[in-house]
Amino acid sequence: MPERALIAEALLSQPSLLPELRIAGEKVLNKERLTEEDGVVLFEKASLPFVGILANLVRERLHGDTTYFNRNFHIEPTNVCVFSCKFCSYSRLYAKREEGWELSTEQMMHIVRSYDGKPVTEVHIVGGVHPRMTMQFFMDLMRQIKAHRPELHIKGYTPVELDYMFRKAKVSPEEGMKLMHEAGLDSLPGGGAEIFHPEIRQQICADKVDAEGWLRIHEAAHNLGMHTNATMLYGHIEKYWHRIDHMKRLRDLQDKTGGFNTFIPLKFRNHDNEMSNVPESSVIEDMKMYAVARLFMDNFPHLKAYWPMLGRQNAQLTLSFGVNDIDGTIDDTTKIYSMAGSEEQNPAMSTTELVALIKQVNRKPVERDTLYNVIKDYTDTAPGSEVLTEVLH
Ligand code: V47
Ligand code: SF4
Fold first, then answer.
1. CB-CB contact of 135 with 166 (8 Å)
2. For the segment 170-199, what is each residue's pLDDT rounded down to a tens digit?
3. Domain boundaries, the chain
4. Ligand 2 pocket: which residues have CB below 6 Å?
5. pTM to 2 decimals?
């Protein structure tokens, strides 16, 4: 039996262990699904080492030491937004005519061209919801990107943006997704999910797409054969059961479609927004969040920690609490976190640094594309040799 399984068994044989934790732990050892009650119990009663050992067992069963990253860049078309999420430090309210940026198609194509010859595999397009940035506008942008660089994977637009565009264009989510896919959209990022339960959603982001709308758009994408991600904004006013409810809705859709790749818990940051009075979660809470997610989301292949948000050292730590992907970019220009007070104000990390960061905690760095096809295994590369590969690509 592998050492990790022995450790987990020893953990469950402790006489002082609460019976409900033993039941949940045994389910994990026997590869059985956790109920919602099990999930809440783990959050409420388990220690960090308890959930950590079990989550690491699941992580290593699924992926061994492999830790994925990819090379992408972001385009943020605008920070002007018609919505008014209370946690958002980034948007400028359209209704109040606040100053913001608004990129033209040509400016966005200029960003795309600036990566010519660089070994990026993905562009992540996400931003505020601007009334003049319609479905036609983005379909035209995507056609231009594909004409310029056909193999570049376009991951873009959350259901918040899509729902607004589709309603304006008077098309159903299913029709809208089909048109966007035909224009070049390859997959959806995980944003806009926040907390699905209306009790919390009403308080933090009442005016944007609701849980059913979010899930319907992802389901439509899955039915077209597209893969998508899912996030959860945690660590603010929600209770543990709201987190479990959120993850359960995602797990149910995944049972139906199998279209999700990755679950990404996003730590709420309280800098410069309308929820600045809400304290941020501790690092213990953050690691517990990742661990319980790995245990509860048994049908999600991947669990991602977004390193610009957590900082490099905490991102390393997540790799022992269930995480097998740390996103990773050569030049991440996203502002949504730096404006909310993330750990990394200038979130750019070279491949060399990212590989070293993963190796330092004895994991195997593997570069992937958006769909987790392996691009390069860096396990046996000498430090610095990535630079050569970058030049040669
Ligand atoms: O939905 C906004 C979050 C999300 C704050 O799919 C905040 O690969 C914390 O979803 N504190 C958008 N979080 C970004 C996103 C994402 C990021 C990286 C990778 C992927 C992927 C998706 O950002 C929003 C919201 O949940 N957010 N404000 C804040 N103050
Ligand atoms: Fe707009 Fe997104 Fe900010 Fe909400 S989180 S206000 S939808 S940019």
1. yes
2. 999 999 999 999 999 999 999 999 999 999
3. 3-63, 66-392
4. 81, 83-85, 88, 90-91, 128-129, 160, 205, 208
5. 0.94
